[in-house]
Request: fold
Amino acid sequence: MPKAKYENSLDRHYLLKNIPTPPFGDVKARHIVSYDEYVGNGGYQGLRKTLTMTPNEIIGEVKQSSLRGRGGAGFPAGVKWSFLPPIKLADGTEVGDEHAGKDVPVEGRYLAVNADESEPGTFKDRLLMECDPHALLEGIAICCYACRLSKAYIFIRGEYHHQAHVLEKALKEAYEQGIFGDKGIIGSGENTAGPRFRVDCYVHRGAGAYICGEETGLLEAIEGKRGWPRTKPPFPAIKGLFGKPTIINNVETLCHIPDIINHGAAWFCELGVESSVGGPPSFGTKLMGVSGHVERPGVYECELGIPLRTLVDEFCGGMRNGKKFKGAIAGGVSMGVLGPDQFDAELDFDIGRKYNVLGLGTACPTVFDEDTDMVAVCRNISRFFKHESCGQCTPCREGSGWLYQLLCKIESGDGRTKDLDLALEIATSMGTMPGTTICGLADGNNWATRTIMSKYREEFEARVKPTYVPVAMTVGASAKG
Amino acid sequence: MAWITKPSATEKIERRGEAYLTDAMRTSITDDFIPRFETTMACILPALHMIQHEYGWIPKQAMEEIARHLEVAPADVFDTATFYEEYWLKPKGKCLISVCRSIACEVCGQQEITDAVREKLGIEVSETTDDGKFTLVELECLGACGGAPAILVGETLHEKVTPEQVVEIIDRVEREIDAGGGH
Reply:
């Protein structure tokens, strides 16, 4: 159950523990944690600890922590890791724990790190990558060791120029310090705590396409093709990058891994909340990037389950200029909107079932005050989806365009009542839920439009003219017949 | 809209004698990028980035050179290049001003920022100034919603900008360009 009190103090921070400055200000002025500073604060201890554990023990620990993916879908990371097919040796035996520390062929098993943070409202991974890049690299190293992966690609969106440079620099340090490369996973020299294991890690820059944040779209983009999502199954864990087993994790998910290994799964399960509707639990802390009409927008680390009102009032200094709350995007525009009466919604993975939104998403709420025009908000969001539709599936490609045109018409006051129903019909008929598209991009469009139109129906109705319903009339000669 | 393509059957490719893909780029691709991936095709994105970084846009001849170097079909390179929004297939100004138009920026006053740039430079969105210095575009989310409204000038992000600051930034960049520094 939700806790009564949430503390906004640095000793409750884990992901942000190395980033003492508040997340505001000029991007370049923010402090970048170097390798030495990271190690000085206990960095790479988790990686050293994993070397004393067998891969199955590590995966078991992550599974036990019920760490759920921080990229939007909330799929348990440990479970995802365990989907990888086992490695078979030349004599046909499967690699197991007894092979820990031995040289096994791991070629052609990949990790793709999803740093393509393009969802409007979401800006949490940016902070992790630009201020504390080694936390991500440690998570990558642990994941590669536990799942026996040979290469990791950090797919970072094209607009993150500064962050890509920071990561490249940190990677160089990590290669020199024996995390990656020839001297791999904590130096193969005299300081070796565990087995020699070679992992390569690269930064791969995207080029401005939201769809590449979809996991299979991301794989296509790394392969150098257009970022068209693939049909699933086969799932990436079986057939992913270059047709080989691939794990795809979000930046924040991987940043949690070192702490889970360091402190244990039991520690992690003390943070956050159990599910109140009988679903899987929402344990741990989460970065919440609050934007929109609040006094102090920014990224805050909170335990899952924190009510939106607490987040806004105690962390962000309340609504801007003391205005009233009107609504908030739950976490990235594709999750839909929380209505005026849902200010107390708890931000955990149950939010979708309890408050009629798609889900928690990235837990980065965009807050709107009473003066916001929700029709304009809806139009803006539909323009985003129209713009970012990759064009592969017709319902999404065409539907998103129609929807945008309709909403423009409604916004300008030229719409009619029937246009509202038409917009809803278009919205509800695209997406993976009605089964008409390959990926979930159209579902985002669907949910955003549907939740805004149902929760602010009166605003939409006030903008449209009534539909003229023709009544059948018979006049003149035909009337007699 | 990544999926809109123009009829290209009748299009003539402008060529120049000198190769766009310099020797240094070829070495970098062969030594740094090709060993990273199982296929050479995966190097298309980094190679296109290199060309764009050097010339500001991606000429068709450069795409052919990339295709030859990576031993893939030119159509594959063209296919990829047309899909991604960040690649410029026609020349743009020296400095690209990208104004974020997504939801957080729009509710925090993005329109005033765009208007300030339009007024200052005398161009509309997606146009280039006559002197070839600036191009203005509106992008979807820059991932800086906490600092809305945000603009990307060249590769530098500016958060919580006001119309006055935008004008100052443009003046500063213009001086840099005049002094010979590319942005």
Notes: Residues 374-463 of chain A form a domain with the de novo design (two linked rop proteins) fold (CATH 1.20.1440.230). The two ends of chain A are 73 Å apart (CA to CA). The first strand of chain A starts at residue 110 and ends at 115. The first helix of chain A runs from residue 35 to 40.
